[in-house]
Amino acid sequence: MSNVTQVESYSDALGALNKGAESICVRYWYKGNEESFNKFVDALASNKTCKVLDLSTNDIYDDGAVAIGNALQYNPVLRILNIGYNEIGPDGTQKIADALTVNNTLLKLVLDNNIILDNGSVAIFNANLKNKNCGLMTLNLSNNGIGGDGAIAIGNALHENTRLQVLNLELNVSEPKEVHLWEKH
User: Sign of the CA dihedral 5, 9, 12, 18?
Assistant: First the structure.
C-alpha cells in the first residue's frame, strides 16, 4: 500500500480520492464545511482505490456519521475506517451499523472516544456482528460510555460472530453484570 496522503480540507481529500490515493488522513473541522465533506463522502461511496481512511478528530458528530454510513453501503474497497474522537452518538452509530449489514469489505472500524452509549453499542452488535455479511475483524469502542446493556449485547453477538478477532472496550462503564458476562467467555 502507498504512503498516507495527509490533507487539511475535504476538497483536498476529494482530490486525493480522484488521484487514486489508497490511504487518506483528513484533519479538518466538519462544522462550517458540511458541503465539501458531503461531496467527499459521496465520492467515497463509489471509490475503488482508497483502502484506509482516517477522519478522527474532525468533530463530524451524528450528521457526518450518517453520511459515512450511507457511503459504506456502497463502497467496495475501504478496509480500515477511523472515525474516533468525533462526538458520534447513538444515531450516527446506528447508521454505521446499518451499513455494515451489507458491507463485507470493512475489516477494521475505530469508533473510540465518541458518545455511543448503550443504545449505539446495542445497535452495532445486534444489527451487524450477528450478520453473516459483516466482515469486521477489529472493532475499537473504547471510552464510549458503554454499560451493562451494551455488554450484554456484545456477549450475545460474540456467540454468533466468528470473524471478529480484536475488540477494544477499554474505559467504558464497568458494572458487576459486565464482569460476570466476560468471566463466562
Answer: positive
> pLDDT (tens digit, 9 = 90+) per residue, 114-158?
998 887 777 676 667 777 778 889 999 899 998 888 877 777 777
Task: Give strand pairing partners of 168.
Answer: 140
The residues near 54 (Cβ < 8 Å, ≥ 6 apart) are 4, 24, 25, 26, 82
pLDDT higher than 70, residue 180: no
- Rounded to whole angstroms, how far apart are CA atoms 89 and 117? 7
Beta bridge partners of 109: 81, 139
Measured distance CA(148)–CA(92) in Å, rounded = 21
Torsion of the alpha carbons at 20, 21, 24 and 30, rounded to the nearest 10: -30
For residue 104, CA distances in Å to 15, 21, 107, 149 come to 26, 21, 8, 26
For β-strands 23-26 and 5-7, DSSP reports them as parallel
Q: Which residue has the cell 475488540?
A: 167
Across-strand partners of 25?
A: 6, 54
Q: Let me know how long the chain is.
A: 185
**What is the CA angle 99-177-94, rounded to 5?**
15
Triad 128, 42, 8: Cα angle to 5°:
105
